Amino acid sequence: MAHYRASESKREQFRRYLEKNGVLDSLTTVLVALYEETEKPSNALDFIKHQLGVAPEDDDAESLRLELNTLQQKYDQLVEENKDLRDRLLRYEPAQEGTE
């Protein structure tokens, strides 16, 4: 019987935690919105994510592609700058024999 009370206590603590942090209200609001939809969405999970403000994964992928392109351009620019600086350095300080 004591085990039953302990798990009830943990459940109650968790419920209070969810309530205190607004999780229950948010979930209730989203589920009510889903219930009230006249035409139910084909993907309920996407509907819930959208209602909670989670960006769709396509947007994440697109932003990551843009960031990758930007970083690739910067990398190419830095490689070119490095090559240019090495060439300039070799003009002023020729490599010593046996090194490099």
Percentage of residues in helical conformation: over 70%
Q: What is the CA-based Rg, rounded?
A: 29 Å
Number of helices: 4
* Structural class determined from secondary elements: mainly alpha
Amount of beta strand: under 5%
Low-confidence stretches: none
What's the count of strands? 0
- The domain tally reads 2
Order of helices and strands: HHHH
Main beta sheet strand tally, sense and closure: none
| Overall morphology | elongated
Distance between the termini: 78 Å
Mean pLDDT: 86
Oligomer: single chain
What distinguishing features does this structure have?
100 residues, mainly alpha, transcription coactivator activity, MYC binding protein, coiled coil
Secondary structure elements and pairings:
Layout: H1 2-20, H2 23-36, H3 44-52, H4 57-92
GO molecular function: transcription coactivator activity
GO cellular component, one term: nucleus
Organism: Cyprinus carpio
